[in-house]
Amino acid sequence: MRNNLITFFSNFKYYFSKDRVLFTRIKQITGITPLNLSCYKQSLRHHSIASKIHNSGSKDSNERLEFLGDAVLNSVIAEYLFKKYPYKDEGFLTELRSKIVSRVSLNDLALKIGLSELVEYDRKSMQNINVRNSIFGNALEAFIGAIFLDKGFKKSKYFIIEKLLRLHIDVDKLQQTEKNFKGRLIEYTQKSGMNLDFKVDELAHGKQKIFKVSVIVNKKVFGEAEHTNKKQAEQQASEKAIELLKNTPKDFFITQERVDELEEVHLNEVFEESFIIDKNESTENQLEEVLEEKLIVEDELEIEIFADQNEAIQEIKIENIDLDNALEYQTEDAKANN
Q1: Phi, psi of 210 (to 5 degrees)
Q2: Distance (Å, whole) CA 216 – CA 144
Q3: Angle, vertex CA 108, rays to CA 102 and CA 111, nearest 5
Q4: How many CB atoms are closer than 10 A to CB 254?
Q5: Taking a C-beta distance cutoff of 8 angstroms, is the pair 29, 110 a contact?
Q6: Out of 66, 141, 150, 234, which one is annotated catalytic?
Q7: 70, 150, 234, 239: which is the annotated catalytic residue?
Q8: How far is CA 174 from CA 92, 104, 164, 178, in A?
Q9: CA dist., res. 14 & res. 22, Å (int)
């Protein structure tokens, strides 16, 4: 009866106040009637717009509530998984919990339930890639912390189980989801005989260092991602590469062994072509030498023939001279006898 009266007066109080819209939205998101809106307001205030409230420099941002909400969220999820999977070991439960409470998962949940529309932040801060990847997930944890302060652990557990897990997360399907995308990619490319490389570039973004990772499969880029954390960038780029590889026809690729084989064939063809050229050049050179020798032999033969011909002519001339002399001698002898 007392709780019903408190809820009634809370509804009446905020319905006619300037916080009516915020009150209504929180009630819609959580299914719970908030009593103390101040802690919810703080849970939705990013440090980029928070003002200093202490001499130490601390701000009235949502960071302290985020710390509290993170502890509540992990304890509720741990109990839920412990009861849901009574025969699974500690490693399985830890890995599944990490998937549920990961920054990517919490960011996605904050968008699905509409909490991201209530978060207050400086728009310029969204230029920071680290802020973009975490601002709404952090706000969700802080929001859970606010529920804990306002309504206690029981209502916090109700919100996490009934409004987040049961409505937006398929835990049974999630357990089959592999988080180590880089490991999956390495295994896939090795089995498929593909060549895999990770190219990492460091980019300066103000005072922050950004890692840009490119996944290269058989000398083609299949995924790129940027993050302040190198491992996170590798995982995100690997996840993109896996999705793209799934939609790529198998005949698009040739395996690395085939690449090596083609390179070897090409080298052999080049070698054989070079050998043929060398062989042809050698044959031409030999032919030229033979022709030269032939010409020399022919020249020598012509000289010999010419010499032989001259000698024969000389002999004939000598014989003719001797014949003429003999005839002339016979004529003179005939005249003397007469």
Answers
A1: -110, 135
A2: 41
A3: 140
A4: 13
A5: no
A6: 141
A7: 70
A8: 12, 13, 14, 8
A9: 9
pLDDT block averages, 10 residues each, the chain of length 338: 54 66 93 93 88 73 94 97 94 89 89 92 70 84 97 96 94 77 86 89 78 90 86 85 78 57 58 50 59 59 53 53 54 54
**CATH superfamily ID and name for 2-174:** Ribonuclease III domain (1.10.1520.10)
Q: Annotated catalytic, 288?
A: no
Complete DSSP assignment for 256-318: HHHHHHHHHHHHHHHHHHHHHHHHHHHHHHHHHHHHHHHHHHHHHHHHHHHHHHHHHHHHHHH
Per domain, the residue ranges of the chain are: 2-174, 181-253, 254-338
Annotated catalytic, 122? no
The pair of structure tokens assigned to 30 is 């959580």
**CA-to-CA separations, 226 to 106, 183, 198, 220, 332, in angstroms, rounded:** 19, 19, 13, 18, 133
CA distances from 107 to 102, 223, 243, 305, 335 (A): 9, 22, 21, 108, 153
